[in-house]
């Protein structure tokens, strides 16, 4: 009987995930060059975890590629220093090319495109400061590494405006723990990210000083943001959503899909609690879509993982460029008006709601029964606070 139920559950998981893949037209219609509001990024300081591969890397390049609307700094946080240096160069190159396009566009608009010398002085006065990309080593499976990364960032910048918690692990060893004893997926996907956010929160609160979080839908209220990259896998959890007794140790009695699912559910619940407890920072969670990335490069995996990896993702998965769009939207969309109900199914509308979960692009309200369970989110918050007690810079 147990085997039959397991097969049925796995079949349901695959069917639901395949249905979520059928969002390509909605995603492709969202164009970051057109949709990111003017000024939403200008002068901002951004940090992206898992920024050396997949949608994290693409997000860094896309954020840097906004002509006339570039961040001041983009930090790439990852374990791989060699790839980090490569991405830093790629991001700075994309930024330089975008600045050049913006410069040429201004000249065309002024009618002086053939008289560059005449405009040199004006261009020098108006030109944006070059974007600076930086790499910081970060292993989310190690509290010591998270502390070191946070100290490095805090010593180098006066504030932090956008924090994208993107890094994630789905496959990997069947039974493994982090350096600090947490089940590997929960420890890396959730605990490490929340510790990083906790340590960097003072920098984000500095960014919030004098800024309104509730907007008018026209780009105002663009205060500090945390974007937690979750997944529709938040629906594939054990009974009760999160098995708190299994968050430390290898949790070998849980299916790998369930371990991954509860880590992604935890990010959604944490974002909702952050919105209530730290409203100065807008915190949302998102599903990027099922994307053809390194997330599916692990050799190990159960039935659901293998079916997605070898069949559904190659056939129906989003490209990395499309899979980045919901993250870009969440990081830059105007804040919702007070009392606003968010955006329509196109991703265009009344703005970003603090604490909401969004599917691509900018579609709210599609979580599972656990994502709105306030009792569960409160219990998770209290568990997390106890685990991270005394963890300060």
TrEMBL record:
The entry's keywords: NADP, Oxidoreductase
Keyword NADP: yes
PANTHER family: RETINOL DEHYDROGENASE, WW DOMAIN-CONTAINING OXIDOREDUCTASE
Presence of the UniProt keyword Oxidoreductase in the record: yes
Name recorded for this polypeptide: Uncharacterized protein
GO MF annotation terms: oxidoreductase activity
Compositional bias annotation for Basic residues: 100-111
Pfam families: adh_short
Region ranges (Disordered): 98-131
Organism of this sequence: Diatrype stigma
Family of the protein in this entry: Belongs to the short-chain dehydrogenases/reductases (SDR) family.
Acidic residues bias locations: 115-129
